[in-house]
Design brief:
single chain; 642 residues; Rossmann fold; 3 domains; 9-stranded mixed β-sheet; 7-stranded mixed β-sheet; 22 strands
Length: 642
């Protein structure tokens, strides 16, 4: 049988655990504490044989006098108005004022009273200096102890229990202190900051708010982490260098810690920072290189007051190119794509972001393989620059649909290139891929064929430029969004092969490179970029699992897909590069193809395309691009033995 008294007690606790004690009840408690302090003071006076005898009349008069004085200052200072569960230094300061000011007034009155003959008030009705000090010292101590006791009672019996987290803060500077304060005030989690970590030896072995500042090697080791039961590291250096951030993050992940970071101060809400603004580390932060930076002066010169046409404008790359172009004050940006819904989303975004530049934006629904429709766009807007991002890019889909891959990637590009020459476009920049180098799949081969075509088309009036780069983090259909969906579903994360590697860059980096390459291109150029070290997809999956803080997610190998290869290349074996003025950008020296031969071969391919025979289409592609050798595909039978 359940204990009814216990049940009633539990119900009362549950009912009132979120209530606040009335300020008048707190004032009443403080008055009671004053009475206790006064009685103890008078008791010491009574037991001291050197002082006059204790009487009820003298005691009551003294009590009423100092009580009225003290309560008056309690009301003026507002020491009773604070919420006890959140009492802090400001509340202690108010208590000190309630004690110091009346004590000072009593001392001043006594001093003046001694100077008057006869005294204004007989000495038996006033407190001695010793009594004043004792009374108000005891009152301050009792009021502070009262609040601490009420806090303890609330924390132990009334407060809803919050999960406890032992935290390390990397960075003992201003951002680290702000982060500490934000964590302490977090109502969702009971954060206990175990230590600050800093590389500045002048700060090491010091303390911040009672928390020690230690070196990296002292803290980020298994023994220290296990001893202090630490589960989280927060990087509180908003301007930390990417490689440094990566090294710290990897070290913490290997120790099983969850890693978060403090965003840049410009993103703080109204200039203030709270714990819920602390961000999870993203896989993009763990690229093994410094971000590529560009000198935007060249881009400004290239774009300002120009009419710019962007194809594939609703895609990951195309949309970011449009966003960046709007920063350089072009006369107009014509955004063209055949995908209706993504174009609507882009239109909504840009019209809100650049509401003062609506006349600079045009949104066009069209397909680059529809020459008549695209020519209508050229006739209407007469673009000065073209950024050609429209393409099919998914390797498995294009392996199954070579007709569409060739129609869009090759002949869609031919339409755009031919119309650019016809309508006097100054520069045509095509976005290509590292999969065009020694292609092993239909998609990569179509991009190489598009490169070959536009290379042969440069004139004194229209310059054609190609940019090659690897995979883009977060782009539509890329591995990162796939892993995120698989994590949300509870796994497993699927990789095609344990040893598969890829080169990566972020979408803004890739698009900035495209704009810079377009500015430096002189016609017939293929630019390749230093993308740093390749990344193993398996390692990326493992790090994403670690970053998620989950330990029960497995990684499953599913085998290479048709047309996929283990290692992407940035340059074919017969190509070499020459440097440009930017250390991260190289100009590829590639084979030149005779113009008449290209026209003949592509016309023959067009004729074959009309028959919609996949084998014949791919066979012709292999004839045009001899280095195209299929991998793990039905088209391997078309390759001649080496």
């Amino acid at each position: 049988m359940k204990n009814p008294i216990r049940k009633v007690s539990f119900d009362l606790v549950r009912k009132y655990r979120h209530s606040t004690v009335s300020q008048w009840i707190i004032l009443a408690f403080d008055i009671v504490l004053f009475l206790v302090a006064f009685l103890v003071t008078e008791l010491f006076r009574y037991v001291n044989p050197g002082l006059e005898d204790f009487t009820i009349r003298t005691t009551m008069l003294k009590f009423l006098g100092v009580l009225m004085l003290t309560v008056m200052f309690m009301l003026l200072v507002g020491s009773h108005r604070g919420i006890i569960r959140h009492a802090g230094l400001s509340d202690i300061w108010k208590i000190m004022l309630v004690s110091i000011i009346p004590a000072a007034i009593c001392v001043a009155f006594n001093f003046a009273n001694y100077k008057i003959h006869p005294p204004l008030i007989p000495f038996r009705y006033t407190l001695s200096y010793r009594e004043i000090f004792m009374l108000y010292s005891m009152l301050a101590a009792l009021m502070i102890l009262e609040r601490l006791a009420l806090q303890r009672i609330y924390n132990d019996y009334f407060r809803r229990r919050r999960p406890e987290v032992n935290v390390l803060i990397y960075g003992a500077g201003a951002a680290g202190i702000i982060t500490y304060n934000a964590l302490i005030q977090d109502l969702r989690v009971e954060n206990r900051v175990v230590a600050f970590i800093d590389d500045d030896m002048s700060k090491v072995n010091q303390e911040l708010n009672g928390v020690p500042v230690l070196r990296v090697r002292t803290v980020l080791n298994p023994k220290y982490i296990e001893k202090n039961n630490i589960s989280q590291l927060i990087i509180a250096i908003p301007a930390i260098r990417p490689l440094h951030k990566q090294a710290i993050t990897n070290r913490a992940l290997d120790l099983g810690l969850t890693v978060k970071s403090v965003p840049h101060i410009t993103t703080w809400i109204n200039g203030s920072f709270t714990a819920n603004q602390i961000e999870d580390i993203k896989i993009e932060d763990l690229l093994e290189r410094e971000p590529i930076k560009m000198d935007n002066v060249n881009i400004v010169r290239e774009v300002v007051d120009k009419v710019v046409l962007v194809t594939g404008a609703a895609g990951s790359i195309g949309s970011e190119i449009c966003r960046q172009l709007m920063l350089y004050k072009p006369a107009k940006v014509v955004m063209l794509d055949q995908a209706e819904s993504p174009m609507y989303d882009l239109q909504f975004e840009l019209r809100n972001t650049y509401a003062d530049q609506l006349d600079r934006m045009e949104f066009v629904i069209a397909n680059v393989k529809d020459r008549a429709r695209v020519e209508e766009v050229f006739q209407q807007f007469h673009p000065n620059l073209v950024y050609h991002a429209a393409a099919y890019k998914h390797v498995p889909f294009m392996e199954e649909n070579p007709y569409e891959a060739v129609y869009i990637n090759v002949f869609g590009t031919r339409n755009m290139a031919d119309l650019s020459i016809k309508y006097g476009v100054q520069k045509f920049v095509m976005i290509s891929t590292d999969k065009a180098v020694n292609p092993t799949n239909v998609m990569g081969a179509t991009k190489r064929m598009a490169e070959i075509y536009i290379q042969s088309r440069s004139t004194d009036q229209t310059h054609f430029v190609t940019t090659r780069f690897g995979n883009v983090l977060g782009s539509n259909g890329s591995v990162i969004p796939l892993f995120k969906k698989q994590l949300a579903a509870g796994g497993p994360l699927t990789v095609t092969h344990r040893d598969i590697i890829r080169y990566f860059m972020t979408i803004p980096e890739a698009c900035n490179l495209v704009l810079e390459a377009g500015a430096m291109g002189e016609g017939g150029d293929i630019f390749v970029f230093d993308m740093g070290k390749p990344v193993k997809i398996y390692d990326m999956a493992r790090k994403m699992i670690q970053l998620s803080g989950r330990t029960n997610i497995e990684i499953k190998e599913i085998g290479l897909r048709p047309g996929e290869k283990l290692y992407e290349e940035l340059l074919a074996t017969k190509e070499n590069t020459i440097p440009t003025y930017h250390p991260k950008i190289m100009r590829a020296q590639v084979r030149k193809y005779p113009l008449d031969a290209i026209d003949r071969e592509y016309n023959e391919l067009w004729t074959i395309l009309e028959g919609m025979d996949d084998m014949q289409i791919v066979a012709k592609m292999k004839h045009i691009v001899p280095e195209f050798r299929s991998n793990n595909s039905v088209y391997c039978q078309l390759d001649k033995p080496e």
